[in-house]
UniProtKB/TrEMBL annotation:
<dbReference type="InterPro" id="IPR016639">
    <property type="entry name" value="GST_Omega/GSH"/>
</dbReference>
<dbReference type="InterPro" id="IPR040079">
    <property type="entry name" value="Glutathione_S-Trfase"/>
</dbReference>
<feature type="domain" description="GST C-terminal">
    <location>
        <begin position="146"/>
        <end position="273"/>
    </location>
</feature>
<dbReference type="InterPro" id="IPR047047">
    <property type="entry name" value="GST_Omega-like_C"/>
</dbReference>
<protein>
    <submittedName>
        <fullName>Glutathione S-transferase family protein</fullName>
        <ecNumber>1.8.5.-</ecNumber>
    </submittedName>
</protein>
<dbReference type="GO" id="GO:0016491">
    <property type="term" value="F:oxidoreductase activity"/>
</dbReference>
<dbReference type="InterPro" id="IPR010987">
    <property type="entry name" value="Glutathione-S-Trfase_C-like"/>
</dbReference>
<keyword id="KW-0560">Oxidoreductase</keyword>
<feature type="region of interest" description="Disordered">
    <location>
        <begin position="296"/>
        <end position="318"/>
    </location>
</feature>
<dbReference type="InterPro" id="IPR036249">
    <property type="entry name" value="Thioredoxin-like_sf"/>
</dbReference>
<dbReference type="Pfam" id="PF13410">
    <property type="entry name" value="GST_C_2"/>
</dbReference>
<dbReference type="InterPro" id="IPR036282">
    <property type="entry name" value="Glutathione-S-Trfase_C_sf"/>
</dbReference>
């Protein structure tokens, strides 16, 4: 365990991959796999966004878990009979144990499940979205963007690493810290990185190149939760997102793009964090704020140029 940061994320246990050529044993096949998500979860929401931007909805179905886990972890209590209608299971753990009956680790979303066997293929969230962008190409919609363009991969990987360490994961390290030093370390890394990203995004509309890429999706999923949860619940409170003008406009630009706003569920987000982390919020009171109406206000980022979908087109609104 790090002396500085205490909260150490467990590695993903299931790292099989679905591939275009089927060499992994899991060939890309429409209708065969089910993506299990919680709309509260930033790691799972990456998959929801890229699935929409790429137009994979018909090829890859989605199961949405109840945002509130109980002691059996993620449940399908939003579905009739408390059961996922496609997988026929009540708890995501059933897919984990079907793959490995001796599994003792956490039950996490996102999870990609093979429908015919009911087995979990992968909970390796960073690889899942890369594979949606590359391995699933045959089933992308017409006009789908290239979210992981070959010539930009090194730059995207570098920025993803920095954003993971200092933004996506740092908010959790701040929130789950048990010592002031660990909290302060995460807090300072987070806001130093957000300052650097603000500077970068002052001059360019998107993080890498002039189109939306995987890098933007990964930063967005933390930014969209920032004021609703991380600022308060995880004590990331130097500033609200709405007080960081460049990042706030950048986040609104993405939010207002089809494929982003239609995957965001602030109710699931707030109820998950404030009700599940009883050690941080023992009263179980879910804050009524913040006022979310600002998300729909003009962002003005068009004047930086950029071509959100490159030579492609946005997905049709839901
Ligand atoms: N699987 C990854 C990331 C995904 C993740 O943390 N998902 C959360 C929800 S945001 C989850 O399912 N947590 C339950 C658990 O790990 O037991 C990890 O363990 O680091």
């Amino acid at each position: 365990m790090s002396t500085q940061t205490e909260f150490v994320r467990a590695p993903n246990a299931f790292t099989e991959r679905v591939t275009a050529d089927g060499s992994s044993g899991w060939p890309v096949e429409p209708g065969r796999y089910r993506l299990v998500v919680s709309k509260a979860c930033p790691w799972a929401s990456r998959g929801l966004i890229s699935r929409r931007l790429l137009g994979l909805e018909d090829a890859l179905s989605v199961a949405v878990a109840d945002p509130i886990q109980d002691e059996r972890s993620w449940r399908f209590t939003l579905d009739p009979d408390d059961r996922d209608p496609v997988l026929g299971i009540r708890f995501l753990s059933q897919a984990y144990y079907k793959t490995d009956p001796n599994y003792t680790g956490g039950i996490s979303v996102p999870a990609l499940v093979d429908v015919p066997s009911g087995k979990l293929v992968s909970n390796d969230y960073p690889q899942l979205t890369i594979d949606f962008a590359t391995e699933w190409r045959a089933y992308h919609r017409e006009g789908a963007p290239d979210l992981y363009p070959e010539q930009l991969r090194d730059e995207i990987d570098d920025i993803n690493q920095a954003v993971f360490t200092d933004v996506n994961n740092a908010v959790y390290q701040a929130g789950f810290a048990k010592r002031p030093e660990a909290y302060a370390d995460a807090y300072h890394r987070l806001f130093a990185r957000l300052d650097a990203l603000s500077e970068r995004l002052e001059r360019q509309r998107f993080l890498v190149g002039d189109t939306i890429t995987e890098a933007d999706i990964r930063l967005f999923t933390t930014l969209v939760r920032f004021d609703a949860v991380y600022h308060n619940h995880f004590k990331c409170n130097r500033n609200k997102l709405t007080e960081m003008p460049v990042l706030w406009a950048y986040a609104r630009d993405l939010y207002q793009t089809p494929g982003f706003y239609d995957t965001v569920d602030f109710d699931h987000i707030k109820r998950h964090y404030y009700l599940v982390h009883t050690n941080i919020n023992p009263t179980g009171i879910v804050p009524l704020g913040p006022d979310l109406s600002g998300w729909d206000t003009p962002h003005g980022r068009e004047q930086l140029g950029g071509r959100p979908f490159g030579d492609g087109t946005p997905p049709a609104p839901v």
